[in-house]
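How a chain folds remains the central question behind the approach discussed here. This step matters because it turns folding into a mapping between discrete strings. The sequence in question and its structure tokens are set out directly beneath this paragraph.
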Amino acid sequence: MAREDSVKCLRCLLYALNLLFWLMSISVLAVSAWMRDYLNNVLTLTAETRVEEAVILTYFPVVHPVMIAVCCFLIIVGMLGYCGTVKRNLLLLAWYFGSLLVIFCVELACGV
């Protein structure tokens, strides 16, 4: 009986963490898309453009498509984990774990 209760508790925890992961991915996607649109509308190259604005213009067009693609991948990974939890499918959960492990290693490599 205690084992069944702990499995239910872990399943609920995984639901909550997947929901949090998914919501964070959607929020970062929304902010990235908004910032891309905002910078394209506000900053234009004119004769009065400062050097700092030009640097922002040349730097951000590279970052935003990458952030949008990464967020779309994270949304798919979050849905994969949620579907694996709901269906109790070990293959989906293994893919989810592998994806999270790859994401963690990439974040660790970028942080160093």
